[in-house]
Amino acid sequence: MKLALGLEVYNKAQLNLPIEAIKAAEQCGYHSVWTAEAYGSDALSPLAYLAAHTKKIKLGTAVIQVAARTPASAAMSAMTIDALAGGNRTIIGLGVSGPQIVEGWYGQPWGSPHHWLRDYVAIMRKVFEREHPLEHAGAQLRLPFTGTGSIGEGKALKSILHPTEGIQIWIASGAPLNTALAAEVADGWLPMGYGPHGLAIHGKNLEKGFSKRAANTVPRSEFQLFTNLTVEITENIQEAINKRKPMTAMYVGGMGSEEHNFHRDSMSRRGFTDQAKTIQERWLAGDKEGAIEAVPDEYIDSGGLFGTPERIRERYPLTIHEGATGQIIRSTDVATIELMADIIGEHSGLE
């Protein structure tokens, strides 16, 4: 099991990267560190900064939103960051976000999330490969552009910068179609709401994608599947659970419309259908406190490790879910980062 560090700095009013925690994770042998974005700080700029402060830990986005930038622009950023980092360190995790952000913040059409991702990955691959000038005729994206407003002078180009080897593309998803797409075209998958029954829920869709996997894609045996795990060393477990409910309520209740909310759907897939519905109904009705109260303790506790080091160590096996190859730890506490490295070492026979 690989360990990774997930940074929750994108949803704050001030950007503050926990450099000491990141360096501790690298020292402890963590596989990667991950940034994110919503509608504030972006996910790519911090990786360039971290490239100067680290030596070997991989630098990933979980995720960048595909509507935020063109795939060629995302590929340019990935190549630049990887060159600054010394090569073979950059992972670009892609996600579609939701229609409220896509159309309200970025001014892009929601379109088809599936086609967005399929075209996006294909174009990024072509940029990295540099085999031919960039051309693409997809269902959602076409290069050179010839649509409304075009003057017909678009030219197929090839990247001036030669990328270093090893830049990876992962997909974040929860719905069946894009989960299958991740297994078909990506190097890894960042599932939304995997849980202890994740493979039973998503395995069929993954197999559909693997059956279509092209020969020039990394072998299935190297495909990565990283889940999220919040960890907090504390004497007050209930307090640790309670302080995570507001964020959960906001995502399940308000990060999306009544029709399109992937976080609500993710909660439902983990067996909390009625609670997810109640949370969304209350949030959209303006009853945020009621939505927070509706978040079940079990949902938070099952997705994290809270308590003394002894309780965390004891409960850790419950967080190992079939099919997962890595865990993204949500903590900036150095003692917690070191504890998880010790626990993983014990379970891997490396103590």
Description of the structure:
This protein folds into 2 domains: 2-231 and 308-347, Luciferase-like domain (TIM Barrel); 235-306. It is built from 15 helices and 11 strands. The chain has helices at 19-27, 45-51, 71-85, 99-104, 113-129, 176-185, 198-210, 237-242, 245-254, 262-269, 273-284, 288-293, 297-302, 309-315, 334-347; strands at 2-6, 32-35, 58-65, 90-95, 136-137, 142-143, 168-173, 188-191, 224-233, 304-307, 326-330. The strands form 2 sheets. An 8-stranded parallel beta barrel has the order 1-2-3-4-7-8-9-11, surrounded by 5 helices. It has a two-stranded antiparallel ribbon with strand order 5-6.
